[in-house]
Design brief:
This protein is mainly beta. It has strands at residues 9-21, 26-38, 45-50, 56-61, 66-72, 79-86, 96-101, 109-113, 118-123, 133-139, 147-153, 156-161, 171-177, 184-189, 193-198, 205-209, 214-218, 225-229, 238-244, 250-255, 265-269, 275-279, 291-296, 304-309, 320-326, 333-340. It has a domain at 190-343: Methylamine Dehydrogenase, Chain H, CATH 2.130.10.10. It has a 4-stranded antiparallel beta sheet, with no helix packed on it. Keywords: Signal.
């Protein structure tokens, strides 16, 4: 995963309304508010996950292998306190990165230790100060090395192995049965696998590979894999990916760009297996956006996505949250809303 080498901040997005009165009519003004919360200083702050049915959020810091447990206000869900815990054998080499809540084991979460080449299933604890308890530990088998992000899809735990192995010089995607980790598969990938998601209609697995700017499709029934290269004319550096249902059904992914900037492009793969690309239209902010992450922003008003633009690869791209809506048949972007990041 790409990262910024700055002090760690988490940013909360809140919706609010205010009303202004005119002589002839009144209208409600909808506003958004960004709040930054100072976290422990770290070079690499990475992943977030809400622990389901609790008022806790977890955040990983890779550079010192710290798991930050953040307590949220029960009513407002604003962060009010945190406690940090060292995970792994060594603060400088264990490299805690991925975090993903388990549905097979409710209340537990998966963690990845890239430096230790290990996946952990942990109980994060019922109170803020309670230390996480390791319930299961999975050593990545040879020739795999360096699990980056971790995901639970059905009864399988998945991880993109971001470090090329000494034995083969190759990269891999790892999956194992959550109940029996000796039942596993290792799929050869390009440089380097990051996010993993399941296309809901076909059940096929898709993986972004950032450095080689390609998406791998995995048929878990046959074991076959296919590489889907991002056309350079469209963009490069495939990173973020999510699975969506309903009107947005399929997998959605982002393109982060390169040293010259982004292209404001994100993509979709549906049941047909074809890549479809969408481009932001707003000059500079949109057309140069380096899109790193993506999330479902749909409401009762219709389908929508959150996109995170980053200046990490190029100062020609802005740091911003972007919300997009679509036309009726979801073939093009309809509206774009931009929220500049504070830091």
């Amino acid at each position: 995963m790409l990262f910024h080498a700055f002090k760690s901040l988490i940013i909360g997005l809140a919706l609010g309304t205010s009303t202004v009165l005119a002589q002839t009519s009144s209208h409600a003004l909808v506003s958004r508010r960004l709040t930054e919360y100072l976290m422990p200083v770290a070079v690499q702050t990475h992943e977030f996950a809400r622990v389901p049915n609790t008022n806790f959020m977890l955040m990983t810091q890779m550079s010192d292998s710290e798991l930050i447990k953040i307590e949220l206000d029960v009513k407002t869900e604003e962060p009010i306190a945190y406690h940090s815990f060292r995970m792994g054998k060594n603060s400088t080499t264990s490299m805690l990165h991925g975090v993903w809540p388990s549905t097979v084991y409710p209340g537990l979460v998966w963690l990845s230790l890239q430096g230790d080449s290990k996946l952990l299933l942990v109980d994060p604890g019922k109170t803020l100060s309670a230390a996480p308890i390791i319930k299961k530990s999975i050593n990545i088998p040879s020739p795999g090395n360096g699990p980056h992000c971790v995901f639970e899809i059905g009864n399988q735990v998945w991880a993109g192995l971001k470090v090329a192995t000494e034995q083969t010089g190759k990269y891999y995607v790892f999956s194992a049965d959550v109940h029996n980790s000796t039942n596993y598969h290792m799929y050869t990938a390009l440089n380097s696998p990051v996010f993993i998601a399941k296309e809901p209609t076909t059940g096929l697995i898709y993986v972004t590979q950032d450095t080689d700017s390609s998406i791998m499709r995995i048929n878990t029934t046959s074991g076959d894999t296919t590489q889907m290269h991002i056309p350079p004319s469209v963009g490069n550096t495939a990173v973020g990916m999510i699975s969506a249902t309903g009107p947005l059904s399929g997998v959605w992914f982002t393109l982060a760009g390169n040293s010259t900037g982004g292209t404001g492009t994100f993509g979709h793969i549906g049941a047909s297996g074809k890549m479809e690309f969408f481009k932001l239209k707003k000059p500079q902010l949109g057309t140069n956006a380096g899109l790193l992450h993506i999330a479902d922003a749909s409401t009762s008003a219709g389908p929508a996505l959150w996109l995170l633009s980053t200046s990490l690869l190029s100062t020609n791209s802005e740091d911003a949250l972007i919300r997009v809506t679509f036309n009726d048949d979801i073939t093009s972007v309809d509206e774009e809303e931009y929220i500049a990041m504070l830091t």
